[in-house]
Design brief:
The protein has seven helices and 13 strands. By secondary structure, the chain is of the alpha/beta class.
Length: 298
């Protein structure tokens, strides 16, 4: 069974200031998502499922349907504030969806096979998709999920600080925890993060989670149970979010299974800030020039 690629494309793009999921970066108008889909296809993935918002569904489909028709199966899932909240009354001040784990849960009825999850606005590189495909088709099970781990230095932005999930990995290459670090950047050759207690160095060998996860479909049941518990405790908090690492952490600590951290040497890049956009375009241009990608993907 071919695995599926699930793309989280319902974000508000608040820091970036525009709908960066559909911005063109490639020489023939390709978005970052186009390169992810292309890499997934040549790795062997058989379907792509987009999680989007209903209010830009038509615009989104007009862009991607002509490109992908006849090349890979596609499906669309809408992340709605009311999805999987039947037993709860949502406060009127709550306006945004419940986070990335809720977005994954919204795809429950669209995915029955092992699948990978990625962000729409991150460039992950061919190596990550090949390793994800291998894991999903050989090792993935209801007791073993995985996370593609990126070299932290290759995930920083030259235009400002970033927030990163820094992985704590044991001697067996298994995830112990993801430590959310805000204000991560490089200073005087050292990667550091800031918090209320000051400045802290991060070892060079640490892997960063860029939200590239590999799951068995059993994760939907785990996530749905956790989401109900999350709502019971957070329904009145308009800023509370239900993130994928919360599910991963519970999966590990409850003894349900393990999460393997699969390292990749690929250069990550993305558009956290508007100032990142020219650099992303330049990086894509270089990859096309070296033959990693054709001038026109489709």
């Amino acid at each position: 069974m071919q695995p599926t690629l699930l793309i989280l494309a319902a974000g508000m793009a608040s820091r970036y200031g525009s709908m960066k999921q559909i911005q063109s970066f490639g020489p023939s108008g390709e978005t970052i998502m186009d390169y992810s889909i292309y890499d997934a296809m040549r790795a062997g993935f058989g379907k792509v499922v987009f999680i989007i918002r209903k209010d830009f569904a038509d615009q989104f489909k007009e862009i991607f349907e002509p490109k992908l028709a006849g090349k890979i199966k596609t499906d669309y899932v809408y992340q709605d504030l009311s999805s999987f909240t039947n037993d709860f009354v949502i406060p009127t001040e709550r306006t945004k969806p419940w986070g990335t784990a809720h977005a994954v849960l919204c795809a429950k009825n669209a995915i029955k096979e092992p699948f990978a999850v990625i962000n729409a606005d991150d460039f992950y590189g061919r190596d990550g998709f090949e390793k994800a495909y291998k894991f999903l088709t050989t090792d993935c099970s209801s007791q073993l999920y995985s996370l593609i781990g990126y070299e932290l230095e290759k995930t920083l932005s030259p235009h400002g600080t970033v927030s990163r999930g820094v992985c704590d990995v044991n001697a067996n290459g298994e995830l112990v925890a993801i430590n959310e670090r805000i204000k991560v950047y490089k200073k005087d050759g050292v990667i550091i993060y800031e918090d209320e207690n000051g400045f802290h160095p991060i070892p060079d060998e640490c892997k960063a989670s860029m939200n590239f996860w590999c799951f068995d479909s059993s994760v939907f049941e785990v996530t749905e149970t956790m989401f109900s518990d999350f709502l019971r405790h957070n329904i009145s908090n308009p800023k509370a979010e239900f993130f994928i690492p919360i599910v991963g952490d519970e999966f590990i600590k409850s003894g349900k299974g393990k999460i393997k951290v699969i390292p990749t040497s690929s250069q990550w890049f993305g558009v956290t800030y508007k100032e990142d956009a020219p650099g992303v375009q330049e990086s894509v241009t270089k990859l096309v020039a070296t033959g990693e990608y054709p001038t026109s993907l489709w």
